[in-house]
Amino acid sequence: MDSFEGAQKEERPRFFDKNAKKICWAKADTVPGRHPERWRKDAAGNVVCKRFCNCSGCLCFEYDHIVPFSKGGESTADNCQILQTRVNRYKSDKEVDPSILRGYSCDLKFNDKELDIIEMAVFGDVIRNGNQCRCRSVAEMLGRFSSKDTMAACKLPHGDDTS
Fold first, then answer.
1. Which residues form the HNH domain (predicted)?
2. Among candidate residues 57, 76, 104, the one where a domain is terminated
3. Together in a domain, 150 and 98
4. Torsion of CA 24, 26, 28, 34, to 10 degrees
């Protein structure tokens, strides 16, 4: 091949484009009772939050090549899955059965009330069946302001009950 042909050949993209990420998120399992644009389950069954992409906490995730890029996997929606960041780091450039991935997951689990508090802190409201509410301002809590927002203010945290 001459240098002209080599210059014409496109390199494989290493990263998933916006559309592939959108499809990848949509095909991941939903979290029952949670807003599907905010919460999903990764390929190992871990709950992850869409706002926590490319960080390292227990609710964080990365877009992963099912067939590793280094082994010829393409950066397409068909070869994309979401994985908790620490699981993706373990998987690295290996093809690993999802049942094995579960063993490398963060050992911290969150109940619904804790996820409500996290969602409130991250999004400013909670959207889930039967419990949609918004964050109140300090002025509103002190009785100095009355919100025109029709969504009810959340009553978080939920008191001493941790169940």
1. 48-83
2. 104
3. no
4. 140
